[in-house]
Amino acid sequence: MSRYDRAITVFSPDGHLFQVEYAMEAVKKGAVVVGVRGKNSVVLAVERKETAKLQDPRTVRKICKVDDHISIAFAGLTADARVLVNKARLECQSYRLTVEDAPSVEYVARYTDPSGTFSAWKANATGRNSTNIREFLEKNYVENATEEEAITLAIKALLEVVESGSKNIEIVVVRTGGKVSPLEDDKVNELCDKIEAEKEAARQASGESKSSA
């Protein structure tokens, strides 16, 4: 096997590119990323690692803007992601110079997935525990959700695995028409508190119904 896993262009006898598979495994072990498509917006939410007290949190972002209407959220190795983000930005600028128009999401996506494949989703997750989050999204996703509903669903999905609540959640909203807008931490805190309050109320109601039964 070691003869076939040293280069990205050498196939194993059974047709595998091991370097590509290793890259995909690194993604599965990274901080979780959630994407939810609403009626007029797309919400990207990521698990943000807790920063040191003196560290500037702007230097550890997991969501990067690559064009006026496109953002990339990544899981896995930050150093590798930085290379891909820079590549995507260069492709966007080159496209604008050549075509004199904004590149499509499909055009950018084909350059950034490690396996060279991409597909469209109504909601999806990648990174650690992504299988559990995907199941949660399948059960709770609603077609044509409003922006706040999409944000709330993304946060609820992340809270399934994020222990520190809103402190470790980063969210960006991409609206129809193309503007990329990071969600302020205060708004994230407010929504997280609301979700936790709803959960607590549901638990209390469940406890009361059991005791009365």
UniProtKB/TrEMBL annotation:
Nucleus in keyword set: yes
The UniProt keyword set, sorted, is: Cytoplasm, Nucleus, Proteasome
Q: Which InterPro entries match?
A: Ntn_hydrolases_N (IPR029055), Proteasome_alpha (IPR050115), Proteasome_alpha-type (IPR023332), Proteasome_asu_N (IPR000426), Proteasome_sua/b (IPR001353)
Q: Which domain of life is it from?
A: Eukaryota
Query: GO:BP terms for this protein?
Result: ubiquitin-dependent protein catabolic process
Pfam families hit by this protein: Proteasome, Proteasome_A_N
The cellular location(s) given in this protein's UniProt record come to: Cytoplasm; Nucleus
The answer on whether this UniProt entry bears the keyword Electron transport reads no
**Mind telling me which GO cellular component terms the entry cites?**
cytoplasm; nucleus; proteasome core complex, alpha-subunit complex
The segment(s) forming the Proteasome alpha-type subunits domain are 4-26
Provide the family line: Belongs to the peptidase T1A family.
Matching PANTHER family: PROTEASOME SUBUNIT ALPHA/BETA (PTHR11599)
Please describe the quaternary structure of this protein.
The 26S proteasome consists of a 20S proteasome core and two 19S regulatory subunits.
From the Swiss-Prot or TrEMBL record, give the protein name.
Proteasome subunit alpha type
Organism, by scientific name, is Phytophthora cactorum
